């Protein structure tokens, strides 16, 4: 099936939800790009096309931003040795060293803080948790716009939350000023066609979508259905069979699932966020 085939979107729906029903989605190229998303962890060593970085950043800056505060920054890391060090800090994730571009998305209150200092103006609001949330949301929306732009250009990406395993060391590596936090990274590169990634199924819409009021009444059955889909996805890829729910229960069952990130509040304070 090619993107020109009318049933292309139904195929994407089927891959995402595996419910056999044909989709009733509105079809356009952006929807197709979004539904085609998959994280890519195998890259060709080729450099990116000229002006890729500028295009991704323009897409990122086109995202909405709380009160136009633009409380985020991005650091483009191309240097191989720095990518190697960041790969190590993120838990030895080889795709960081392999992808030609690694973008570090920064929840950044430091620019606003510097503006206040230069203007000899108070900065009281910056010390509150709400402002950290604003910066985190801004950085995340910007990054996701860049992901969509990259995927629309035929590139692959994968987010790297592993950067939060060692936030203070990452801040040192990148010379982050106080009030700047590397919230996640993003590998960008040409997907290796010999190791293609697949569209991963998601929970049925009914488990996520509530109408008018929150209703978890039939949640169990919907999650059980998803366990079957997620398990099927694993088996089809020759991976260990595993139900989504048991994986998630293991993930939330103990601090080990936080990969050392149980000290995040202290780390953020060290990085200059008061979180009042
Ligand atoms: C904020 C965030 C952090 C992530 N961190 C990592 C990571 O450190 N390493 C990795 O291989 N994948 C990471 N991922 C990718 C997720 O594992 C992936 O999105 C999820 O399994 C769904 O698969 P899909 O993106 O292919 O649909 C991250 C995703 C997000 C949104």
Automatic annotation (TrEMBL):
<protein>
    <submittedName>
        <fullName>NADPH-dependent oxidoreductase</fullName>
    </submittedName>
</protein>
<dbReference type="InterPro" id="IPR029479">
    <property type="entry name" value="Nitroreductase"/>
</dbReference>
<feature type="domain" description="Nitroreductase">
    <location>
        <begin position="36"/>
        <end position="190"/>
    </location>
</feature>
<keyword id="KW-0560">Oxidoreductase</keyword>
<dbReference type="InterPro" id="IPR016446">
    <property type="entry name" value="Flavin_OxRdtase_Frp"/>
</dbReference>
<dbReference type="Pfam" id="PF00881">
    <property type="entry name" value="Nitroreductase"/>
</dbReference>
<dbReference type="InterPro" id="IPR000415">
    <property type="entry name" value="Nitroreductase-like"/>
</dbReference>
<comment type="similarity">
    <text>Belongs to the flavin oxidoreductase frp family.</text>
</comment>
<keyword id="KW-0285">Flavoprotein</keyword>
<keyword id="KW-0521">NADP</keyword>
<keyword id="KW-0288">FMN</keyword>
<dbReference type="GO" id="GO:0016491">
    <property type="term" value="F:oxidoreductase activity"/>
</dbReference>
């Amino acid at each position: 099936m090619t993107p020109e085939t009318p049933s292309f979107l139904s195929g994407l729906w089927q891959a995402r939800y595996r419910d056999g029903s044909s989709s009733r989605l509105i079809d356009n190229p952006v929807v197709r790009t979004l539904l085609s998303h998959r994280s890519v962890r195998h890259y060709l060593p080729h450099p990116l096309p000229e002006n890729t970085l500028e295009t991704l950043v323009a897409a990122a800056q086109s995202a909405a931003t709380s009160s136009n505060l633009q409380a985020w920054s991005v650091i483009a890391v191309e240097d191989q040795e720095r990518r190697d060090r960041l790969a190590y800090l993120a838990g030895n994730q080889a795709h960081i060293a392999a992808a030609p571009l690694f973008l570090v998305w920064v929840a950044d209150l430091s620019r606003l803080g510097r503006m206040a200092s230069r203007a000899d103006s108070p900065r009281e609001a910056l010390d509150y948790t709400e402002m950290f949330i604003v910066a985190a949301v801004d950085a995340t929306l910007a990054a996701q716009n860049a992901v969509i732009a990259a995927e629309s250009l035929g590139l692959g990406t994968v987010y790297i939350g592993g950067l939060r395993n060692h936030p203070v060391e990452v801040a040192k590596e990148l010379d982050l000023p106080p009030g700047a936090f590397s919230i996640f990274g993003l590998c960008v590169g040409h997907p290796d066609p010999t190791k293609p990634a697949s569209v991963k199924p998601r929970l049925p819409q009914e488990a996520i979508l509530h109408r008018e009021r929150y209703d978890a009444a039939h949640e169990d059955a919907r999650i059980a259905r998803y366990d079957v889909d997620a398990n099927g996805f694993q088996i089809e890829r020759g991976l260990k069979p595993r139900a989504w729910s048991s994986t998630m229960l293991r993930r939330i069952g103990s601090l080990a699932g936080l990969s050392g990130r149980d000290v995040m509040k202290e780390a953020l304070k060290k990085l200059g966020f008061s979180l009042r």
